[in-house]
Amino acid sequence: MANVTAKDFQETGYWGRDFKTKTTKICSEVMDDKPSPGAVSESSEHLFSFGVIADIQYANLEDGYNYQRTRRRYYRHSLLHLQGAIEHWNRESSPPCCVLQLGDIIDGYNAQYKASEKSLELVMNVFQRLKVPVHHTWGNHEFYNFSRDYLTNSKLNTKFLEDQIEHHPETVPTGSFYAYHFVPFPKFRFILLDSYDLSVLGVDQSSPKYQQCLKMLKEHNPNMELNSPQGLSEPQFVQFNGGFSQEQLNWLNEVLTFSDTNQEKVVIVSHLPIYPEASDSVCLAWNYRDALAVIWSHECVVCFFAGHTHDGGYSEDPFGVHHINVEGVIETAPDSQAFGTIYVYPDKMMLKGSGRVTDRIMNYRKEKPFPLLV
Fold first, then answer.
1. Which is it for the CA torsion 236, 189, 103, 179, positive or negative?
2. Which pLDDT band, with edges at 50, 70 and 90, does 38 fall under?
3. Average pLDDT taken over every residue of the chain
4. Which domain of life is it from (predicted)?
5. Long-range contacts of range 313-316, CB-CB < 8 Å, 24 or more positions apart?
6. Contact 46, 343 (CB under 8 A)
7. How far apart are CA 206 and CA 258, in angstroms?
8. Main-chain phi, psi angles of 265, to 5 degrees
9. Which residue would you say has higher pLDDT here, 242 or 369?
């Protein structure tokens, strides 16, 4: 496969404002022979499964609305949705190997009412009923409630579940970012990323890293209100988002290189999405292009799961990577649900959604070189 970088895309114009149009054009040109999204091989053998749930944002509050007051939020009922999801996974005849919690486990309002620790304890007690391991990612609402140091020493740090790759120390994260990888089944590797590695949230304001991230944010966002994307050419540069340090991206590249060499299939998890076709542009990671460039230079990545958007999203990118933004529990009505179970096969993954999470079939891409962009 050609080693494509962000620079290649800049030089060919594929990182311009018409990114969506041009990537769609690439996709139609080079992926016409991909199997139909709905194609199911009857001979496929079920290997294992895993669960996904996003944006629980529990708080002991009456129902409210999002910041634009366009969508209702069910702060108390989100805990009942979580209970329902756990009961479902525990009842499965072949239980999932693990559950991926995609961040924003409690709402930022808890900090305002000095209820952060109490609410987190309540939600974690519900998760303890789950019969399989849960892997936690960190979102903006974690940092509204807690500092990074607090989270590192909390039950939301599930790095103890990581796998070590013998004789490959470069695949061990050594920075201050919260990221790790693990193998739930032979030849499948899951990678949790820290999409607030670059952020002004949860960081000591006197630290050099805070100053560095604030400078980066203000260079792209001149608004007095840094949570406002108004007038921005890159609307993802708002305070409630974050990004990936170069150190973390280098580490990701090393892990993906190992997975390529060993013919592994890779699932990547992050609170923030990185693909514009699958997300509202204001919800993307600051330097999503850099993350995509790393992923697109490898053949092993099957899908990228994220939360944050609340209303979900999906797109298959030109390199055959499936980007799934899972619908948020917090904006799910009491008579519905919002979680999914992914069933893994030798040739595909099948997402079985509950409630407003959409069913999807994610075929693995064919092993062939990707043509150079000219």
1. negative
2. very low
3. 89
4. Eukaryota
5. 313/273, 313/278, 313/279, 313/280, 314/278, 314/358, 314/360, 315/275, 315/277, 315/278, 316/27, 316/37, 316/362
6. yes
7. 38
8. -95, 140
9. 242
pLDDT > 80? residue 42:
no
- Beta-carbon contacts of residue 10 (< 8 Å; ≥ 6 apart): none
Residue with tokens 């999503």: 288
**pLDDT in the model for residue 31:** 37
Report the alpha-carbon distance of residue 215 to residue 201 in Å, rounded: 14
Average pLDDT over residues 291-308: 98
DSSP-based three-state secondary structure for 348: strand
CB 364 within 8 A of CB 187: no
The residue type of 194 is: D
In the prediction, which pLDDT does 175 show? 80
CB 191 within 8 Å of CB 268: yes
Alpha carbons 237 and 241: distance in angstroms, whole number: 7
Mean pLDDT of 205-227: 97
pLDDT score recorded for residue 12: 42
Cβ atoms 181, 192 nearer than 8 A: yes
DSSP result, 272-332 = S---GGGS-GGGS-TTHHHHHHHHHT-S-EEEEEE-SSSS-EEEE-TTS-EEEEPPBGGG-
Residue from 280, 344, 332 nearest 306 by CA = 280
Confidence of residue 81 (pLDDT cuts 50, 70, 90): very high
| CB contact set of 227 (below 8 Å; sequence gap of 6+) | 238, 239, 240
Structural tokens at position 174: 């050594």
Distance in angstroms (rounded) separating the CA atoms of residues 197 and 208: 13
* Range of lowest pLDDT (48-57, 109-118, 128-137, 160-169): 160-169
Instruction: Catalogue all structural domains in the chain, each as residue range(s) with its CATH number.
Output: 48-363 (3.60.21.10)
Q: Kindly list the distances between the CA atom of residue 198 and the CA atoms of 9, 171, 311, in Å, as whole numbers in the listed order.
A: 23, 20, 25
Q: Is the separation of the CB atoms in 370 and 2 below 8 Å? A: yes
Mean pLDDT of 202-225: 97
CB 77 within 8 A of CB 334: yes
